[in-house]
Amino acid sequence: MGDAADDLLGYAFKRPDLLQEALTHRSALHGRRHSHGSNERLEFIGDRVLGLLMAEWLAERYPREQEGELGRRLAHLVSQPVLAGVADAIGLAGVLAVAPGEAKAGVTKRATVVADALEATLGALYLDGGLEAARTFVRRAWHDTMSGQATPPKDAKTALQEWAQKRGLTLPGYTVSGRSGPPHAPRFTVTVSVGTMTGSGTGASKRAAEQLAAEALLVQVAT
Questions:
Q1: Closest to 76 in 3D by CA, of 50, 99, 95
Q2: Is 65 tagged catalytic?
């Protein structure tokens, strides 16, 4: 797994254990009570590293834009669908370690799983090679997505509301359908509905989960 993953990332790890941890889904830990050794801790780090590097890149690329415009660009670039697309483009699912049963169930095809693994991998890159290694990877892997942003995108909730209004549908309704995780690191699942269509998203806050739910429904109506 190590050499193949190194090739995908274009980086040779000095500490292969970091890469192994980043590519280990919690299901691969064979029912241990705690998920120590899975990629969840590295995902936490990678999420912050990605936000910093994207903010830096956007400020360089769009020096005349203000916080609101930059913020919408940032939200899109670090969104779950974009992360999953980047992970798919580099073939990350093929080197992700999951339990055999989960593999048969297609867990590596789930956007949330590969997006989390990508963030964990970025966290591992940062810890192993510092910001420069992480920056090099991000600017290569997100190049096409960044280049395709001619104008600042609308946030997903606004875009979904406008989509519904144009078609004379009821406005989107958001419901918290689940909550998990410890009190210091909760995970919220939100379901959004427009007529008979629904989408769901899970995030570290209700607001983030709502955005992800809106994104998921927008993907549905666009296909």
A1: 50
A2: no
Strand order in the sheet with 173-180: 173-180, 187-194, 197-203
Query: Of 21, 119, 155, 215, which is the active-site residue?
Result: 119
Catalytic residue status for 47: yes
For domain 156-222, the CATH class is: alpha beta
Q: Where are the domains of the chain?
A: 2-147, 156-222
pLDDT digits (tens, 9 = 90+) for 182-204: 888 889 999 999 999 999 999 88
Q: Which of 21, 47, 116, 210 is catalytic?
A: 47
Alpha carbon dihedral 127, 132, 134, 140, in 10-degree steps, equals: -160
Structure confidence by residue, pLDDT tens digits, 64-116: 998 888 888 888 898 888 899 999 999 998 888 877 666 666 667 888 889 99
Would you put residue 25 in left (φ > 0), alpha (ψ -120 to 50) or beta? beta
Report yes or no: 124 and 22 within 8 Å, Cβ to Cβ. Answer: yes
Residue type, 126: Y
Structure tokens at 149: 């942003």
Which fold, 2-147? Ribonuclease iii, N-terminal Endonuclease Domain; Chain A (1.10.1520)
